[in-house]
Amino acid sequence: MSTGTGSTDARTARDTDADATDASSADTSRDIDKASEADAATASPVGDSAAGSTGSADDAATEATDDGAGARQAEGASAPTRGPHPLSAASAEELDDGTPESDADPESDASEADEDEPAPAALVEHSASGSVDEDGAPHRRRRSDPPPAVFNYADDEHERRRDHRRERPRRRGRAGWIATSIVLLLLLGVSVALNWHLWNTTEAWEARADELTTVNYDLGAQLSSEQATTMGLESEIELLSQQLATSNQRVLDLSAESQSAIDESTFASQQIDLLEGHLTTATSTATSLQRCVDGQQQLTQYLKTPDDYDPQELAAFEKSVSELCATAEQNQQRMLAELTE
Amino acid sequence: MRRALALFAATALALSGCAALPAEPQAMPSDWVPEPTATPVAKNVGLSPDGFTAAQRMTLRVRSIGCGVGVRTGSGFALDAFTLVTNRHVIEDSKNIQVSTHDGRVIDATAASSTTVADIAIITTTEPLGGAFAARATQDPEEGDVITVVGYPGGGRLTTVSGVVLGAVPDPVEDGGAVDTVLATTAVVEPGSSGSPVLSDDGEVVGVVYANNAVGQSFIVPVTMLNTLLAQPSLLVPDSLECSQS
Fold first, then answer.
1. How many angstroms separate the CA atoms of B50 and B159, rounded?
2. Is this structure's pTM higher than 0.80?
3. Are the CB atoms for A16 and A59 separated by under 8 Å?
4. So what CATH class is B146-230?
5. What pLDDT, in 10s, does the model give residues A189-235?
């Protein structure tokens, strides 16, 4: 846990540094860094991880109070490795706690430290010597560990690099915030436009629903009226159908009566024609019979005084009367025959 | 890079959401009530101008005035506006033939012709008979088929009776003249029904009534015989409408 404790201290210092960076000026931070680096560089890597921080003296004091145990642990852990230092552990603790590191991205910082800075001989020596944590395990350098405390280049160059490292995360953070803000603004704009569109669409559909409801009621009223009219018309149709059926039956009856009357009239006409024929025959028969009778009466008179007449003329007259009577008898027979048909 | 991807994904999601957004309603339609059609009755063939059925309108009453004393009546049906079919025995020894429609109109016949192969006669007129004409079937009815007879039994009113086809039988009338079998039915007919059309369920003419018997059966000339006669006019002999002087 000694390694973990050291790391926790370092993260605490970085967090504090991140907050303090926004609140303080760069110059102040740089000045304090100078002082803290001067001390912490010779104190221990843990102390250096707390170095480079900005902030006011009060914040530093407070953090020093909070991180006192960590600092002391760091000091204790580094003491066997680094050996004697011009500054006392207490003074280093005071400076270190008041100057937390300003790295916002410890990993990048560590990686940059690994990549940019040459491995110091002391660190190599430190690793080779196999520094030991509190739990007795050999200490392994992590990316979150501070860079080696011993550098071979000048302070200005070191400061410039540290400023550079400090500015890059700051610019990255600012760009991220700007990008996030732009995205959120875009989403806000899209959401507003979407709401506006949906609002208008809802209004339009509500208006359409109202219109359809009105039209529906109108159509319902028309349908009801038409149904009433249809029922009335159907009733009238039924009544008219009954009247038509009755009229048709009456037409058939009248037609049958008419045809029957025509049949009877025709038959009567035939009967009249027949009777007229019978009458004509009877008249003719009666006439011929009358002439027969008249002839026979005349012949009877002639035969009463036969000496007064020429016998030949008398015989001829008698013959003619006989023929006349024969014809009359024929007519009578024909008439009787017609009457019996 | 991940932020750019997230931004791109958010934009794509927003645009895809816009593509599925509901649109505003279209213009309010006003043509959902169709225009009423004024010819719904034209398709109904069951109706007629005077309320009578087609069978009633095409059936005619035949009055045959003989040379002697007496009037003989029968029935017939119109083939077209100037031609009707009846029985030969209805117009035999006639000096005058009159045709009456269902509504009482009387039309004089101008000519008649008959055949000796069946009790069938064809009468022609100069005045139109009416508006309904017979549709002849192409096949004879089968045993068990329901038939309808429309005629003027007894010379009375127009009457419709129904019956069932009993089957083909020889001509029951002595010297009836039929050269082929006829069909017996259960339809009750009377004198005066001779020449009545026999109709199927479809309203087509399937025969012509020409006789009956004492048990109430009626006999009909099959429609195939009628079709044959109409297809061969040489089988029809014109009848004289003058009385012979004897």
1. 17
2. no
3. yes
4. mainly beta
5. 999 999 999 999 999 999 999 999 999 999 999 999 999 999 999 99
CATH code of B54-132, in short, is 2.40.10.10
Contacts of B18 in chain A (CB under 8 A): 194
Give tens-digit pLDDT for B153-205.
Answer: 998 999 999 999 999 998 888 766 667 789 999 999 999 999 999 999 999 99
Cβ contact B155–A258 (<8 Å)? no
Q: Does the beta-carbon distance from A200 to B24 stay under 8 Å?
A: yes
Q: Is the minimum CB–CB distance between A230 and chain B shorter than 8 Å? A: no
Extents of the domains making up chain B: 54-132, 146-230
Whether the CB-CB separation of A247 and A254 falls below 8 Å is answered with no
CA distance A141 to A151: 17
Structure tokens given for A88: 């006392």
The answer to whether domain B54-132 and domain B146-230 are alike in fold is: yes
By Cβ distance, the residue of B3, B10, B21 closest to A197 is: B21
Q: Name which of B10, B51, B100 is nearest A244 (Cβ-Cβ).
A: B51
Distance (Å, whole) CA B236 – CA B226? 11
d(CA A338, CA A315): 35
